[in-house]
Design goal:
By secondary structure, the chain is mainly alpha-helical. It contains 12 helices and no strands. It has helices spanning 3-20, 28-35, 40-54, 57-70, 74-87, 97-113, 131-144, 148-175, 182-188, 191-197, 202-216, 221-253.
């Protein structure tokens, strides 16, 4: 291994360690979800913003696949194609993660709070969605389109963030389940979270795959800088969204 390669490896390792300590992982909205039960109003607010935030997941992964193919990056294409296949339900429309998300959130909202269902694609038109949630979507799309290494930094940050986010949200749903029998709750609501953060550790594997793709594409100091920029900007705009949601919920509580 050359001295330059060792230096690049050290830079990437340092970057990944820094990202793991980012305040987004312990933001006040996550702390609220783990400890403060939802009301009908705060749940409806969460659902609309979570739908709008997460609706871009498959689109982003598909973009990574397309760019990996265009850049002859076979390893990234293979790994993210597998992730895309999982998000799309492994060929079963009914197990598509977006459908599982929609069904789980709507069943919980109906049974616990008497809320009408919301389609994922309709969330963008909801008056409950914050400007910061739209800004998150717009900024991540901009970053994904900003160059190959920058895109990989975005993908790594999103996959790493997803594991913590989904575990926190699963806890919030568990804490507010009062109406559904346990088996029904696990089968019809918790399933959305368990396909990501269950015993198989899918999101942990996704994050590890994304980090591998980053390591494969660090050939210069400039590459590391672009990856770092994409990752840090992604986590920063995500933190802004969670902080705005926390402020909004505090205002609802008076």
């Amino acid at each position: 291994m050359t001295t330059t390669a060792m230096t690049l490896d050290e830079q990437v390792t340092s970057l990944m360690d820094e990202l793991e300590r980012h305040p987004v992982y312990e933001n006040p909205y996550f702390q609220r979800l783990e400890s403060v039960p939802w009301t009908g109003r705060t749940y409806e607010f969460h659902r609309a913003n979570f739908f709008q935030r997460t609706e871009g997941t498959v689109k982003g992964i598909a973009h990574v696949c397309a760019q990996a193919a265009a850049n002859d990056d076979v390893d990234t294409l293979v790994l993210f194609s597998f992730i895309l296949n999982e998000e799309a339900g492994n060929g079963e429309a009914g197990r598509c993660h977006e459908i599982l998300m929609e069904n789980a959130h709507n069943l919980h909202g109906e049974r616990e709070f008497g809320l009408s269902p919301l389609r994922v694609k309709e969330a963008r038109n909801s008056e409950l969605v914050l400007p910061e949630t739209f800004a998150y979507r717009e900024r991540t799309l901009e970053l994904l389109s900003g160059g190959y290494q920058r895109m990989l930094g975005v993908a790594m940050a999103l996959e790493s963030h997803a594991d913590r986010m989904l575990q926190v949200c699963r806890t919030a749903f568990r804490n507010s389940n009062n109406e559904l029998p346990h088996d029904t709750f696990v089968h019809d609501v918790e399933i959305y979270f368990n396909v990501h953060v269950g015993d198989e550790g899918v999101e942990e594997r996704h994050a590890a795959d994304a980090r591998k793709c980053v390591l494969n594409n660090c050939h210069s100091d400039e590459d590391v800088a672009e990856i770092a920029y994409g990752a840090k900007e992604t986590l920063a705009i995500q933190l802004e969204m969670w902080n705005a949601m926390d402020r909004a919920v505090r205002e609802m509580a008076g």
